[in-house]
Amino acid sequence: MHLNVNQGICAILATMDKNHHIWRIWATALHRWGLQELVASLLEAAGPLTLIGAQVIYIGQPILDGMMPDGYLTVLTDVLEDDNQRVAFVNCLREGT
Fold it and tell me: Rounded distance, CA 87 to CA 65, Å?
């Protein structure tokens, strides 16, 4: 696979994993609202506390499922539980869309 050097990390990740298209949706919304840096900083600072956040989402899943599109909760818990995904999402937020 040949990638253009000018492609951002989100574009590269989107080709690698089917869930990263959801990251792009979130990043676009957070940039529009001016919250991308706040969310990125919170994700970085929370460290191991993100695991507790993922557990809270699992507990609230019956209620939250009706509020979010299919697959979004799974992607969110994956980001909160997996350090590599969290770092990549933070980079995606800071890169811009």
Answer: 25
- How buried is 75 (Cβ within 10 angstroms: 0-12 exposed, 13-18 middle, 19+ buried)? buried
Contact 77, 86 (CB under 8 A): no
Six-digit token string for 12: 């590269």
Structure tokens at 71: 């697959």
The set of residues, in sequence order, having a beta carbon less than 8 Å from that of 74 and lying 6+ positions away, is: 19
Express each pLDDT in 9-42 by its tens digit: 665 555 456 678 898 899 999 999 999 999 999 9
φ and ψ of 67, to 5 deg: -100, -15
Query: The tokens 């919304």 sit on which residue?
Result: 29
- CA dist., res. 17 & res. 45, Å (int): 25
